[in-house]
Amino acid sequence: MTETVLLVGGGGREHAIARALADSDADLYACAGNRNPGIAEIAVGFETLDTTTPPAVVSYAEDVGADLAVIGPEAALEAGVADALDDAGIYTFGPQEEEARIETDKGFQRRFMEKEGVPGCPDFEEFRDTEAACEYIDEYDGDLAIKPAGLTGGKGVRVMGDQVDAEEAKAYIRDSDYDRIVLEERLIGEEFTIQAFVANGELRVTPAVQDHKRAYEGDEGPNTGGMGSYSDGSLELPFMTEDEYHDAVDVLRAVVDALDGYKGVLYGQFMLTADGIKVVEFNARFGDPEAMNTLPVLNTDFLDVLTAARDGEKLPKLAFQRQATVCKYAVPDGYPTDPEAGAKVQIDADSAGDALLFYASVDERDDGIYTTTSRSFAVVGVADSITEAEEVAEDALQRAGTDGLRVRHDIGKPDLVQRRIDHMAELRD
Ligand code: AMP
Ligand code: GLY
User: Fold this and answer.
1) Which pathway, per its entry (predicted)?
2) pLDDT, average across residues 379-389
């Protein structure tokens, strides 16, 4: 039976979800705040609407007769879009507002880990009072990560000893108007992501991915939503062991066991430290860019995952192509602090050559595709090794040109991957 699927969201991540469903027995409809040309090309219908307004999404879902929905962005989850769709009888692969707090409230996330005995929780304290937080910084023996409790698009965290010193940390807290701040032990190591499909009390895991949050090459500059990412042809990454991958999966399993009724993607952001796996955060959705590393190598039909989840069945076992991926985002000049929107995007699927092209926060107008103030598009190389995948991605960027845009060319290059391996080797000694 052909399923009618509604996809919510219009970024690179959602373009990857759309592409994962393109060959499935599904009629795909999509809605997002921006008209993403990649999604619009795959979908039967595309509606521009505010995806944080549940009635607007439900109304479109009902108009198109959706049997199922998939939610990409966290803001829609926080707004209760999954709750509203579920209430309207449209099964939604994405947690309801309460379960999405695992991402949307970092204070809740840490208290939950502590209460449920989920392994890998760093020392933390949550503060409502600015001066009490500043006192804690003065008294704490060591560096802290300063984290607004709510969503900040990945841009709110400041890490002492890396981005700020104690005085700058306190000034940041005093100058901001966040309701609640979580201060937690600074973790040192290499970060990685594992995304799991979760439904009916089960989880199915995908290969580890390493994202690059910092805006500039060499991991300099402000944090971004993610500038690019890579995965290897195995489940783990070159700087970690198979056992370490499985330790991280055990953390995700502990979360699923403790969160009754969670459905959707559970994303674990981990730090591999000298003392093993620690949790940086959980997200309640696919990562962006990480979805673009994972879904292109998924051989299992993603629609089978969605229908099994909906029908209360066991999720299918996942099969992956044993290939490496490298994803590079092109972002507007000045991103993330002072982005310049309005550049015309030159790349298209033909000029991307062997790379996969994913459009992100661009806008399709009558006379072409234009950048907004957020990430513009990503190219993904898929090949036998990280090095070859990187070359495929770079080749696409070179051929298409990136005028008015910026790219971290170092992502996935042998030098940077080796630095990660050396860093872990040094910490383990
Ligand atoms: P988040 O918004 O929680 O993903 O944090 C953004 C980035 O801040 C993470 O990807 C890490 O690089 C960094 N970060 C967050 N928490 C910590 C921590 N406890 N120690 C060190 N770095 C952290
Ligand atoms: N890549 C980071 C995120 O999706 O939150």
Assistant:
1) Purine metabolism; IMP biosynthesis via de novo pathway; N(1)-(5-phospho-D-ribosyl)glycinamide from 5-phospho-alpha-D-ribose 1-diphosphate: step 2/2
2) 98
Residue 312, classified by CB atoms within 10 Å of its CB into exposed (0-12), middle (13-18) or buried (19+), is: exposed
pTM as predicted: 0.97
Given 3.40.50.300, 3.30.470.20, 3.20.20.70, 3.40.190.80, which CATH number is that of 190-420? Answer: 3.30.470.20
With a 6 Å cutoff on the Cβ, whether 105 touches ligand 2 is: no
For the CA of 152, the closest atom of ligand 1 is 2
Q: Determine if ligand 1 sits within 6 Å of the CB of residue 169.
A: no
Q: Could you report the per-residue pLDDT of 104-125, keeping only the tens digit for each? A: 999 999 999 999 999 999 999 9
Question: Could you tell me if the CB of 288 is within 6 A of ligand 2?
Answer: yes
Task: Return the domain boundaries, the chain.
Answer: 3-101, 123-185, 190-420
Closest C-alpha to 12, from 411, 387, 319, 294: 294
268 lines ligand 2 (CB under 6 A): no
Architecture of the 123-185 domain? 2-Layer Sandwich (3.30)
Contact criterion met (CB below 8 Å) for 283 and 103? yes
Distances (CA, A) of 157 to 14, 148, 162, 172, 187: 25, 7, 11, 10, 13
